[in-house]
Design a protein that fits this description.
15% strand, Rossmann fold, single chain, binds S-adenosylmethionine, eight-stranded mixed β-sheet
Length: 272
């Protein structure tokens, strides 16, 4: 799909829940339909702490981007599986630090493209492209990516709360390595995904989400499988953690409690 301006391959089906719209509902957004809400309500019966989880994840994303911009000098972001625009999106956080920061949003949900284009009409340092995040060649060759991103300088590749959408046969670890191999030393990989220590939760949520989203889902994994994504990389402090524990700020935030059914787990690595 590289080189095509709008590689739209799916249309919006309001009757089939989408991961992007369900996540929007969990965050309290309005870009979702009855089917998304129904699916979320069913999901909350299996994993009741999921709204706090979604909020924790979004706050993690914002803290990471702010930290990378202020402490690591990162000015370019490739946000894989960016989701529907909500408050304090990556470009807003990064451009508050430096108005020249560049952000490419990548998502396969057609609604993300539509809403993103509207939001970004006035911002020529940010773009949104509709693509499969596993299509690394297509993404890196996309004209908007080539226009905005200077690949001789460090880039932060974000994979925040997305790898559970990628089934094993699509090789999420291979995707991360492909992207890492194209970035210069000093670049950053941010990776987290849904994990659970409880086998029955991994199995039941994976089955529920695969059925609900018509197969647009991968797998709830174990923490050690996320650890494996980071092998050979320089993991930044505080290491791989439940994401609300990644450099928490001083504000009081909702937490999932002591023994949540599932968590977002991961961290940040610098490429050598
Ligand atoms: C849970 S949301 C995470 C949004 C954002 N990264 C965040 O953490 O706030 C997952 C997003 O990944 C997108 N997604 C899922 N599979 C994808 C794929 N194969 N290619 C591109 N985007 C995908 C979904 O459409 C959704 O917007």
């Amino acid at each position: 799909m590289g080189g095509e301006e709008e590689p739209v391959s799916h249309s919006v089906d309001v009757n089939v829940p989408s991961v992007a719209r369900m996540y929007d509902w969990l965050l309290g957004g309005t870009d979702n339909y009855a089917a998304d809400e129904d699916a979320c309500l069913q999901l909350l019966r299996i994993v009741p702490t999921t709204r706090a989880l979604a909020l924790n994840n979004r706050l993690f994303l914002q803290r990471v981007v702010h930290t990378l911009a202020t402490e690591y000098g990162i000015r370019q972001f490739l946000d894989h599986g960016s989701g529907l625009p909500t408050q304090d999106n990556v470009h807003q956080v990064a451009q508050r630090v430096d108005s020249d920061a560049r952000v490419v949003y990548i998502d396969n949900d057609p609604l993300v493209l539509a809403h993103g284009r509207t939001l970004l009409d006035q911002n020529d340092r940010t773009t949104v492209i509709q693509a499969e995040m596993t299509d690394t060649d297509g993404i890196f060759e996309h004209p908007d990516v080539r226009r905005l991103i200077e690949f001789k300088a460090p880039v932060a590749a974000l994979f925040v709360s997305v790898l559970h959408c990628i089934p094993d046969e699509d090789d999420p670890a291979g995707m991360i390595e492909r992207v890492a191999s194209r970035l210069v030393p000093g670049s950053i990989m941010v990776v987290c995904q849904l994990v659970s220590e409880h086998r029955h939760i991994r199995d039941s949520v994976t089955e529920f989400m695969a059925q609900s989203t018509n197969g647009s889902w991968g797998r709830v994994r174990e923490p050690r499988e996320v650890d494996a994504y980071f092998i050979g990389k320089e993991i930044l402090e505080p290491g791989l953690v439940e994401v609300s524990r990644w450099r928490p700020d001083t504000e009081v935030r909702p937490r999932q409690g002591r023994d949540p059914e599932w968590i977002e787990y991961g961290g940040v690595a610098r490429l050598r």
